[in-house]
Design a protein that fits this description.
heterodimer, A: about 550 residues, alpha+beta, FAD/NAD(P)-binding domain, Glutaredoxin, 13 helices, B: about 60 residues, mainly alpha
Chain lengths: ~550, ~60
C-alpha cells in the first residue's frame, strides 16, 4: 500500500500544505480521455492547457504536497509567455524577481558581463526568479478552479499497460489500489520517471562527472538580482560557484565539489558551513549570518529519449529529457514541450486530427532537445571539464580572459531560448517565408508587440489557430473569412485578427509593408505560414499541413 | 588580420581540447609547442609571435 508522507516538508520561507489523499474512484476503476502522471510544474501546466482546450483529464501525484526545495528557480521570457496562456503569469510576476544581467568572475576579478537583450515590446523581462514550489502552489490553485482537471494527491502509478486503443494504469493509494484507464497517458513524472522505467525506455546522451552542491540560504546581501558565476575562486580552486537571488530573502549558492567527494560528505553541516562562509567572504560579506533552507547534490546530464510518443504514452519535461542546469534549460524546456503537446492532443482527442499530428510532437520536441543537448554540452564542458584537454583549454581561457577580450564570450553559456521549428512538416509547403526580410520566420514563435500602455499582441489567449491579417476589417476578402469559418465548422478553432495599418509597430515587427499579408499562428503561437497575400486556397493548404492531414 | 567569429572560436576550443586528449601520455606539451611553431609560420612575423608569447605568459 502506498504511504506518502503526511508530514509537511520543512522550509524557512514556504508553508507546505498537505492535501488529503484522494479517494479511490467508485467501483475500483475509472476512465478518462487523458491521464497525466506527475503534478510538477510541467504536469500542472499541461493539465491547465488541456482543460482550457476542453479536454477532461486526471492528474495523478504520488505525494501529498508540492515538491521539496526551490529546484527550478529561473524562468525565461518564453516560459512566462507560456504561463500567461494558462493564466499563471501574474502569480510569477507578483512574487518573482526579474533580471537580465550575468557576471562572470575569474578569481575575484569580473571578466565578463552578460546583458540579455530586452526590448520595450516584450511584456516580460528575459528572466525571472521564483522558487519552483511557490510556482507549483500557484498552479495548484488554478487547477482547483478548473472543473475539467481531477488532481488526485497520493496516487502512485505502479503499472502501465498499453491496451492498443488506450492505456490501463495500476494505481496504488493509501486507501487501496485501482485501475485507471485512459485514451492517452502523459508522463510528466520528472527525471526519475516511474512511467519511463515501467515502459523500460532508455535515454541517450552524456552524463558528466562534475558534482555541484545546491544550497538555499536566507541571508541579507545588498546585491541586485543578477547571475554571479565564479570560476576558480580562491576557496574552491579549479572549480566553479554560481549564485542567484531568490524571493523571500533567499540566495541560491551552487558550488562544484572536488573530484571524489561523496554527496554525504558534501552535505555534512560543517562542510556546508565552511564553504558557504568562504563564498560569502569572497563577495565581501564575511561573517554575514545565514540560515540553510534546503540543500541537494546535482550532476549534469544531457540526455533525451529518442522519441516522446511510445504507443499511447507521451513523455514531457524531465521524464523525456535531462538537461544541464547551466543555461536554465530544465523547466523552461519542459514548458515548451507542454505547450507543443496541449493543442495537438486536444485535437486528436476531439477527433479532428490523427496520430500523425502527435508524431510531430515527438519529432519537433526531440529535435529541440537534441539542439539543447549540443549547446548545453558546450557550456557543461566549460563549467565541469570532462577531460584533461578540456580542463587545460578552460584554464587557458580563464587566464587569457584577464587581458584578452576576445575569449570572454566563451564564459557565456547560451541561455534557454525557444526552439524554432524551421523544418517542421507542420509548416506550410508553399508560403512566402523567404520573401520577408523581417518578422518571425515560419516555424519560429510569434514576436510580441506593445499595443498600448499595458496591452501586448501576445496577451490574447490562443484558443486555437490565429490568422493575423494585415489590413482593415473592411478590406478582409469575404472568401478568406469564409475559409476560416469552414474550419471552425469542422471543429478547428481559427480566429481572425485584423491588424489595422494604424498599428505601425506590428506591421514593422512582422516585416509587412502592404495590406493583404498574413501570418498563420498555431495554437502554441508558432508561425506555420506567412504570406504577402493570403488566398482561401493557401490558407486551406496551410491548415491541412498544420493539422498533419494528408 | 582576420579574426575568429565566436562560433569559430568555440570550434577551435573543442578541436584543441580533443587534440590534447588524443596526444599520447606526457606528449601534450610537445604537441602544443609544435602547434605554436606551425601557427607562427602562418603568422609569418617573428616580432608579432614574440609579443603574443608575452601575452600568453601573463597571469599564469
Amino acid at each position: 500500500m502506498h504511504q506518502p508522507s503526511t508530514e509537511p516538508r520543512r522550509s524557512i520561507y514556504h508553508t507546505y500544505r498537505v492535501h488529503p489523499a484522494a479517494p479511490v474512484p467508485a467501483g475500483g476503476t475509472d476512465d478518462a480521455p487523458v491521464v497525466i502522471v506527475g503534478a510538477g510544474p510541467i504536469g500542472l501546466v499541461t493539465a491547465l492547457d488541456l482543460a482550457q482546450r476542453g479536454v477532461r483529464c486526471v492528474l495523478l501525484e504520488s505525494e501529498l504536497q508540492v515538491s521539496e526545495g526551490s529546484r527550478a528557480i529561473v524562468f525565461t521570457r518564453r516560459s512566462m509567455e507560456i504561463l500567461q496562456q494558462v493564466g499563471a503569469d501574474a502569480a510569477v510576476t507578483r512574487q518573482g524577481l526579474p533580471w537580465r544581467f550575468g557576471n562572470s568572475f575569474y578569481g575575484t576579478r569580473r571578466v565578463y558581463r552578460m546583458e540579455a537583450p530586452y526590448d520595450a515590446h516584450d511584456r516580460f523581462l528575459p528572466m525571472i526568479n521564483l522558487q519552483q514550489q511557490v510556482l507549483e502552489e500557484a498552479l495548484v490553485e488554478l487547477i482547483g478552479a478548473q472543473p475539467r482537471v481531477a488532481l488526485r494527491w497520493g496516487h502512485r502509478v505502479v503499472g502501465v499497460r498499453d491496451t492498443g486503443d488506450g492505456v490501463a494504469l495500476e494505481v496504488d493509494t493509501p486507501a487501496g489500489a485501482y485501475t485507471q484507464r485512459c485514451g492517452w497517458l502523459i508522463a510528466c513524472d520528472g527525471a526519475r520517471s516511474a512511467v519511463r522505467q515501467l515502459q523500460g525506455l532508455k535515454m541517450e546522451g552524456d552524463a558528466y562527472e562534475g558534482r555541484f552542491v545546491i544550497a538555499d540560504i536566507r541571508v541579507d546581501l545588498p546585491l541586485p538580482t543578477e547571475r554571479l558565476a565564479y570560476f576558480d575562486p580562491p576557496w574552491n580552486r579549479g572549480n566553479t560557484v554560481l549564485m542567484h537571488r531568490e524571493p523571500h530573502g533567499i540566495w541560491r549558492v551552487d558550488y562544484q565539489l572536488p573530484p571524489g567527494e561523496t554527496p554525504e560528505q558534501a552535505l555534512a553541516p560543517e562542510s556546508l558551513k565552511a564553504r558557504i562562509d568562504a563564498q560569502l567572504a569572497l563577495i565581501g560579506a564575511a561573517g554575514a549570518p545565514w540560515t540553510l533552507d534546503w540543500s541537494s547534490v546535482y550532476s549534469a546530464r544531457a540526455m533525451t529519449l529518442p522519441a516522446y510518443l511510445n504507443g499511447r504514452v507521451l513523455y514531457c519535461g524531465d521524464a523525456a529529457h535531462l538537461l544541464p542546469i547551466f543555461g536554465v534549460r530544465g523547466a523552461n524546456t519542459g514548458f515548451q514541450d507542454s505547450q507543443n503537446l496541449g493543442w495537438k492532443l486536444a485535437l486528436v482527442v476531439q477527433g479532428v486530427a490523427g496520430r500523425a499530428l502527435l508524431d510531430t510532437y515527438s519529432t519537433e520536441r526531440v529535435a529541440a532537445a537534441r539542439e539543447i543537448v549540443g549547446e548545453a554540452g558546450r557550456s557543461t564542458r566549460f563549467m565541469t571539464p570532462p577531460t584533461r584537454g578540456f580542463r587545460l583549454l578552460r584554464d587557458a581561457t580563464l587566464s587569457l580572459s584577464l587581458t584578452q577580450e576576445f575569449v570572454r564570450p566563451l564564459f557565456h553559456w547560451r541561455t534557454s531560448r525557444p526552439h524554432e521549428y524551421l523544418a517542421s512538416p507542420l509548416n506550410s509547403p508553399e508560403d512566402d517565408d523567404r520573401l520577408f526580410d523581417a518578422g518571425p520566420r515560419t516555424g519560429a514563435p510569434m514576436v510580441n508587440v506593445r499595443l498600448d500602455a499595458d496591452r501586448y499582441l501576445m496577451d490574447a489567449r490562443a484558443a486555437g489557430f490565429t490568422l493575423l491579417w494585415f489590413g482593415t476589417a473592411e478590406a478582409l476578402p469575404a472568401d478568406v473569412a469564409d475559409a476560416a469559418r469552414a474550419w471552425r465548422a469542422r471543429g478547428v478553432a481559427l480566429a481572425l485578427t485584423c491588424i489595422d495599418p494604424g498599428q505601425a509597430d506590428v506591421w514593422q515587427r512582422y516585416g509587412v509593408r502592404s495590406g493583404g499579408a498574413a501570418y498563420l499562428l498555431r495554437p502554441d503561437q508558432h508561425v506555420c505560414a506567412r504570406w504577402f497575400a493570403v488566398t482561401p486556397h493557401r490558407l486551406d493548404r496551410a491548415m491541412r499541413a498544420a493539422l498533419a492531414l494528408a | 588580420m582576420a579574426t575568429l567569429t565566436l562560433s569559430g572560436l568555440e570550434e577551435v576550443y573543442d578541436v584543441l581540447a580533443q587534440a590534447i586528449d588524443r596526444a599520447p601520455d606526457g606528449r601534450s606539451e610537445v604537441f602544443l609547442a609544435k602547434l605554436a611553431l606551425l601557427l607562427s609560420q602562418e603568422v609569418g612575423d617573428a616580432a608579432r609571435v614574440a609579443a603574443l608569447v608575452e601575452v600568453a605568459l601573463q597571469d599564469l
